[in-house]
Amino acid sequence: MAFAGMNYLAIVVAAIAGFAWGAAYYMALSRQWLAAVGRVEPNKSATPFIISFIALLVMGFVLAGSIGHLGPDNVTVKNGIISGAIVWAGFVATTVFVNNAYPGRKFSLSVIDSIHWLGVLVIQGAVIGAFGV
Fold first, then answer.
1. For the residues of 69-127, what is the DSSP string, one character each?
2. Inside any domain, residue 110
3. Do the domain assignments include residue 69?
4. Domain extent for 107
5. What is the tens place of the pLDDT at every residue in 68-78?
6. Cys-Cys with 74: which of 34, 56, 69, 70 at CB 3.0–4.6 Å?
């Protein structure tokens, strides 16, 4: 199996697309999310947004590397989506649920946040696959 390499433009576009998805998703579910975390007002600081975008760049880089390991002819939209979903199910959803279980956070918070990350990884996988190597 040959490593296909990474398309750095695809990684940046994937991070932007994932960020846009998160903005739309959490705007639509802002009341539910705030209730799940026990707050009435959102954090007004820019810091979480900066951290989120950097994390999305790292996530895109790692996902591109994972997809690239499928080989040059297998960097496709379909394989990107499948890879994103597998990474989400194996690493992200499990982590979200465990991290929210120990402090006794509401189950709905885990559901809301894990669906967000599913969208991010599927979108990033599709973008990376569409750009190819």
1. TT-GGG--HHHHHHHHHHHIIIIIHHHHHHHHHTTT--HHHHHHHHHHHHHHHHHHHHH
2. yes
3. yes
4. 8-131
5. 999 889 999 99
6. 70
